[in-house]
Amino acid sequence: MPANPSAHRFSRRDVLKGITAAGIGAFTGSLAHGYFYERYQIELTRATLPVSGLADALAGLRIGLLTDLHRSDTVSHEMIDRAVRLVMAEAPDVIILGGDYVTWGDRRFVQPVADALAPLSAPHGVFAVLGNHDDDRDMPAALTAKGFAVLRDARTRLVVNGEPLEFAGLRYWTRRVNDIAHVLRGASPTVILLAHTPMRLAEAAALGVPLVLSGHTHGGQIVLPGIGAVAAREFPVVAGIGKRESTTIFVSRGVGTVYVPVRLNCDPEVALLTLKPVEV
Questions:
Q1: CATH of the domain at 249
Q2: In 3D, which of 252, 264, 257, 217 has the Cα closest to residue 71?
Q3: Please, which residues have CB within 8 angstroms of residue 169's CB and are 6 or more apart in sequence?
């Protein structure tokens, strides 16, 4: 008998069903990869940051940056320990902790994350700010007990190679230009603003701050091909180096995860940042 041509004919609905099933399968596979593999692959990012007005004596200063650790049931001690060891292997001149040490202020993990960070040390010190997930009592007390200076709308001044260098740390909710200006009042020309969220870039640029170090975005955490970091579109810089007027900013993708324990096309990172003068 002749073959029935209709037996091999696919309807448009069948084709769409097949495409949908394939798409769901690919997305599910990507999420599984992000859960079982990618969120554990902590990278060391090296970047050279141009700093307006940087004195020659401060050129080459190296800053280690760890942020958004989010120690929790899904972010283990081993992950934080790996991040710490990556930074310490680079022997930075100074280390900055950028906030969100635990998730949702979970007190169970305040002391464990401080213990995991305890091996951090640098010739010019370790300085920390708090994120929106951190409480204002237990977390700073735990970090201070490890010898780290926690800057809450406060500055600290160093002298490096005979030149003054200041770090100004903001509370997460400090956002008005006048309040930030109060923290910066009397600062030396080379002042680095530590702001957990990169949303403070606009205020920093308005105040002529040469450099801002931030986290908070997780780099988007889930970055979709052709679409990008959907969850982080509101930020002026999602990850890496950005610039507004004379202000440079570096935004770290961070170490941990929040909401869902998945990273997709957005590996966790710690950073080693080297300062250089802006070329004229």
A1: 3.60.21.10
A2: 257
A3: 127, 128, 129, 150, 151, 152, 153, 154, 155, 194
DSSP string, 227-270: TB-GGGTTSS-SSEEEEETTEEEEE---S---SSS--BS---EE
pLDDT tens digits in sequence order for the chain, 280 residues long: 455 544 455 565 544 444 333 344 444 555 566 676 799 999 999 999 999 999 999 999 999 999 999 999 999 999 999 999 999 999 999 999 999 999 999 999 999 999 999 999 999 999 999 999 999 999 999 999 999 999 999 999 999 999 999 999 999 999 999 999 999 999 999 999 999 999 999 999 999 999 999 999 999 999 999 899 988 989 999 999 999 999 999 999 999 999 999 999 999 999 999 999 997 6
> What total number of domains does the chain contain?
1
- Indicate whether 31 belongs to any domain: no
What are 175's two structure tokens? 């956002």
Tokens of 2: 């002749």
Q: Would 9 be classed as within a structural domain?
A: no
